[in-house]
């Protein structure tokens, strides 16, 4: 394409101090005034940014080895649990994880901010004792300087755009979009509109894997598409990494959403090299060009209805009209902070402190975004829940001996088996009590010979149906030769169903 620039050429201009950098806000006016063709010749880089709650954020931490060493099975930082299923002293602290002692008023986002601020936090861990990791637990104060690596890895940041929220119901709702007043009492929204990186490069011509970015004051990278990446709906996302040790806590701020939970407000800046006229045109996008659906959160459904479509310009005006009423709007994100980040990145590029990188791979432009399917799994099999260590008796045993066994083992049913372990009867604690009252002495005189059984491969719901049909509370589990291999009770099944909800 005639007049096309390269990233290498722009980097040479940065090194020589000859680069022309503007913010995305400034680029709107430039493109409007002189057009994209001339803008492409005059502008080298457009700095974009966003700042707002980004729940899908967190940090990988390596604490180093204690003496004696510990293999961390569970770990808490200021009573906020981090995930430890990776290595002995590695953990991932998620921003939205709530504190165990303060609940949703304090969480992973607060710990991340405090670490970035150089504050001490309490590390408490429980260990899985092995020969090479003999320590059972540890509790110590740590700071960011004590940690070997503190790598910000955010699975989903910087939505290209996000829905606005309102509430048609008669109740106040507390959501990740903030407090939604009843009967369309307000509209909340999030995002930087014309400053947003992905809104300025919707075709991902310059943004991709390996793009260097400004992440909370550190220099980081885009490492892939973000989770829930849905470019066909205009809701592309980024997965990013950075260094918490270099981060500015001003751009990693904990957020508490009333009666909902904790989030982390993250500041991200992305430089867009103006390679040609097409890039210049896309970076001239304005708030008036970006449409946002207002979605009704008063409908408790995954597919909430769209009440109205508006632009960021309308949302940022402070009010929109819904069904003939003027409704106030409010932002969860900060345009002011996003613009500040764009200005800081612009300054770093102009001073030669930040150069651009060529993506090694573009972000996918087509990606099917799948909702969670609803396919309730079948109930577990009897073999999954049966008791395998079965207490049995023989027909010739005395009732007194069997009664003693029932009491010692704290059970209510005993299958009666022959010498080969095949079932020939069953007795219950009620049978024993009645036999004692009647003066009977041998088990074979009181046992029920017509025993209702079940096989290990049969389903739990079939076991429950069989118990109901025969008005019993227990089933011996037998193999193909009628040998007892387990026992399942109504209590066992009830507990499984309770856990599964």
From TrEMBL:
Pfam family, one: HcyBio
Domain CBS: 386-443, 447-501
Assigned keywords, A-Z: CBS domain
SUPFAM superfamilies, per the entry: CBS-domain pair
Source taxon at top rank: Archaea
Signal peptide: none
SMART domains registered for this protein in UniProt: CBS (SM00116)
Protein name, entry field: CBS domain-containing protein
Species: Methanopyrus kandleri
């Amino acid at each position: 394409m005639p007049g096309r620039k390269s990233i290498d050429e722009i980097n040479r201009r940065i090194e020589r101090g000859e680069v022309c950098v503007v913010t995305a806000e400034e680029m709107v006016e430039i493109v409007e005034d002189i057009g994209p063709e001339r803008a492409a010749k005059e502008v080298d880089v457009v700095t974009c940014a966003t700042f707002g709650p980004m729940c899908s954020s967190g940090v990988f931490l390596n604490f180093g080895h204690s003496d004696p060493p510990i293999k961390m099975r569970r770990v808490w930082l200021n009573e906020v649990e981090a995930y430890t299923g990776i290595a002995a002293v590695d953990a991932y602290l998620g921003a939205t994880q709530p504190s165990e002692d303060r609940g949703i008023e304090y969480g992973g986002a607060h710990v991340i901010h405090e670490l970035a601020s150089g504050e001490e936090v309490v590390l408490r861990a429980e260990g899985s004792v092995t020969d090479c990791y003999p320590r059972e637990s540890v509790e110590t104060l740590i700071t960011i300087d004590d940690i070997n690596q503190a790598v910000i890895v955010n699975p989903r940041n910087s939505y290209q755009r996000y829905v606005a929220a309102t509430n048609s119901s008669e109740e106040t709702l507390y959501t990740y979009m903030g407090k939604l007043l009843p009967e369309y009492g307000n509209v909340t929204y999030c995002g930087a509109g014309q400053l947003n990186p992905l809104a300025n490069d919707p075709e991902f011509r310059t943004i991709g894997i390996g793009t260097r970015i400004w992440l909370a004051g550190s220099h980081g990278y885009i490492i892939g598409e973000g989770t829930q990446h849905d470019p066909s709906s205009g809701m592309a996302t980024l997965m990013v990494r950075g260094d918490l040790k270099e981060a500015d806590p001003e751009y990693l701020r904990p957020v508490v959403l009333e009666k909902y939970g904790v989030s982390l407000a993250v500041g991200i800046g992305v430089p867009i090299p103006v390679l040609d006229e097409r890039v210049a045109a896309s970076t001239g996008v304005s708030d008036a060009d970006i449409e946002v659906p207002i979605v009704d959160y008063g409908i408790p459904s995954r597919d909430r209805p769209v009440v109205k479509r508006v632009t960021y310009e309308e949302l940022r005006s402070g009010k929109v009209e819904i069904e003939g009423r003027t409704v106030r709007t409010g932002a969860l994100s900060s345009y002011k902070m996003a613009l500040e980040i764009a200005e800081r990145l612009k300054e770093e590029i102009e001073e030669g402190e930040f150069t651009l990188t060529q993506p090694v791979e573009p972000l996918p432009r087509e990606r099917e975004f799948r909702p969670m399917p609803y396919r309730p799994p079948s109930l577990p099999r009897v073999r999954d829940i049966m008791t395998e260590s079965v207490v049995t008796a023989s027909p010739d045993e005395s009732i007194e001996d069997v009664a003693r066994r029932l009491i010692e083992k704290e059970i209510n049913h005993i299958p009666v088996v022959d010498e080969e372990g095949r079932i020939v009867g069953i007795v219950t604690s009620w049978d024993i009590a009645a036999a004692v009252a009647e003066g009977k002495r041998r088990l074979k005189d009181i046992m029920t010979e017509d025993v209702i059984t079940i096989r290990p491969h049969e389903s739990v719901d079939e076991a429950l149906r069989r118990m109901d049909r025969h008005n019993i509370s227990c089933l011996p589990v037998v193999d193909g030769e009628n040998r007892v291999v387990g026992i399942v009770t109504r209590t066992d099944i009830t507990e499984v169903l309770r856990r599964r909800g």
